[in-house]
Design goal:
This protein is mainly α. The protein contains 2 helices and no strands.
Length: 82
């Protein structure tokens, strides 16, 4: 039989299992990855802000805070298509 199945029943079970896994990934995993990829620049800037504050570079924090606000505005303006 095809795809290494011993018989037709194994082939059908494997086929429908693969379809179910593919649908679950498309419905649940892909939107979550898209949301995370939108928020990644925000997480990087927050870490950068923390480092600047920790090192005492307070004159740099205002610039980073404005960049964080710009990223938040961009995230709010975007809509994720599912």
């Amino acid at each position: 039989m095809t795809m290494g199945a011993d018989d037709f029943e194994d082939f059908i079970i494997g086929f429908f299992l693969e379809i179910a896994i593919g649908l679950a990934m498309k419905m649940y995993l892909d939107p979550e990855i898209a949301k995370l990829s939108l928020k990644f620049p925000l997480l990087v800037k927050r870490d950068q802000l923390w480092i600047y504050k920790r090192r005492g570079l307070h004159f740099m924090t205002q610039n980073v805070m404005s960049e964080i606000q710009d990223i938040k505005d961009d995230i709010a303006a975007m809509h994720i298509e599912v």
